[in-house]
Amino acid sequence: MGEGRVEVQRINFPELAEPNGRIAEHGVILRVVSTNICGSDQHMVRGRTTAPVGLVLGHEITGEVIEAGRDVLTLEEGDLVSVPFNVACGRCPMCKAQNTGVCLSVNPARAGGAYGYVDMGGWIGGQAEYVMIPYADFNLLKFPDRDQALAKIRDLTCLSDILPTGYHGAVTAGVGPGATVYVAGAGPVGMAAAAASRLLGAAVTIVGDVNAARLAHARQVGFETVNLSNDASLGEQIVAILGEPEVDCAIDCVGFEARGHGHAGAQAEAPATVLNALMEVTRVAGRIGIPGLYVTDDPGAVDDAARRGSLSVRLGLGWAKSHSFFTGQTPVMKYNRNLMQAILWDRLKIADVVNVQVISLDKAPEGYALFDSGVPQKFVIVSMST
C-alpha cells in the first residue's frame, strides 16, 4: 500500500484465468496452507523497486488443490503441493532446458515470471487464502504422502524459494566435499545456502553479516561466522578461522541493498560491496554464486548509477583471478524434488536452520515489520482458514 505499508484486505476469489484474461484450463486453484515472507518482498515494501500500490504479495506458496482445470492430468482435489516461485509454461525452449527462471511465455515484458512480484507478469501473489497456479502439471511438486508432508510442513514450505535458491547458490559456486565456503548474508537465504553447503559436503562454511543476532543464530546451528561490523577485514577474519585469507567457494545472499564494512560502513549502503569482497576472498579460478537479488531499477538507490542497476564492480579483479560468476533467478524445479527427499528422509532440517516462525495471515503486517528489523527468523504465514 505504499512505502513501508502492507495491509490485509479482502480480494476476489481466484479464477482459472491468466493475467491477460485468457482462460487457464491448465491451472489449478489452491487453498494456501503456508506462504512465506521473503526478503525480496521486503525490497518492494521498502520502496526499492517500481512495484505498484495494490500489489498482492507472495511468491513462496504451499497449498492444497481444491479445483483443477479440465486440461490438468496429474493432480486432483486434495493433493498437497509445493509451488516453485517461478511461473513457467513448460513448453518454451528455456523451460525445456530447465531454465524455468527465464520462461519465455509467461511475462510479456521480459523473460521470467513470478507470483506477486514487480515486473514479473502480473501473476497474483499467494499471501492469501487462495491462489491460482497456471500450467499446474508442469509447475507443481506433489508431496507423496499428505500426513507426512503436514507433519514436516515447516520444512517443506521452504521448497518454494529459499531452500532451492540457497542450494542453487551453493551448486553454482562449486561447493562439494571438503570445500571451504563463505556465505555473505545471515538472512534466511544465506542460512539456506549454508545448510545446502553442509548437505553438499563442505568442510567449513563461514557466514558473514553485520547483524549480531543473525550471526548468533548461525553459530547456534553450527556454522562459523564473521562480523562485518568489526574493524578487522573480511580476509583477516577468514584467516583467523581457516589459517588463510581465501575460500574455495563464495555465495552472495545479500544483493543490491548491501552495507559496507566496519563500524561506520555497516550503517551505509554500498551496493557493490559484497561482490567486490567476494572477489577478494575467493581463490583464483574459484566460482561465485549470486542468488542475492539485483534489480534493473532501484528508486531508493544511493546514486544515479545504482538507480539504473549500474554498480561499481571490480570486474578487473575477478578477471585477473579467473573467477566465474553465476547470476539470475533460481530454476526451482531443477532442485526441489531432491531437496524434498532430503527433508522427508531427515537429511536436512531447514526450518531449524532458518528459524521458521509461524504466524497467521492477519498478523502478516507485524511479520513484515519484525523481519525488516533484522530478527533472525523466517516468517511463515498460515491462512486463517487453515
TrEMBL record:
GO molecular function: formaldehyde dehydrogenase (NAD+) activity
Enzyme Commission number: 1.2.1.46
Database matches in PROSITE patterns: ADH_ZINC
All residue ranges annotated as the Alcohol dehydrogenase-like N-terminal domain in the record: 26-143
Signal peptide interval: none
Entry keyword set: Metal-binding, NAD, Oxidoreductase, Zinc
Residue span, Alcohol dehydrogenase-like C-terminal domain: 188-255
Gene3D superfamilies: Medium-chain alcohol dehydrogenases, catalytic domain, NAD(P)-binding Rossmann-like Domain
Cofactor(s) required for function per UniProt: Zn(2+)
Transmembrane stretches, start-end: none
InterPro entries: ADH-like_C (IPR013149), ADH-like_N (IPR013154), ADH_Zn_CS (IPR002328), GroES-like_sf (IPR011032), HCHO_DH_non_GSH (IPR014184), NAD(P)-bd_dom_sf (IPR036291)
Enzyme class at the top of the EC tree: oxidoreductase
Family listed: Belongs to the zinc-containing alcohol dehydrogenase family.
NCBIfam families linked to this entry: fdhA_non_GSH
Record protein name field: Glutathione-independent formaldehyde dehydrogenase
Organism of derivation: Paraburkholderia aspalathi
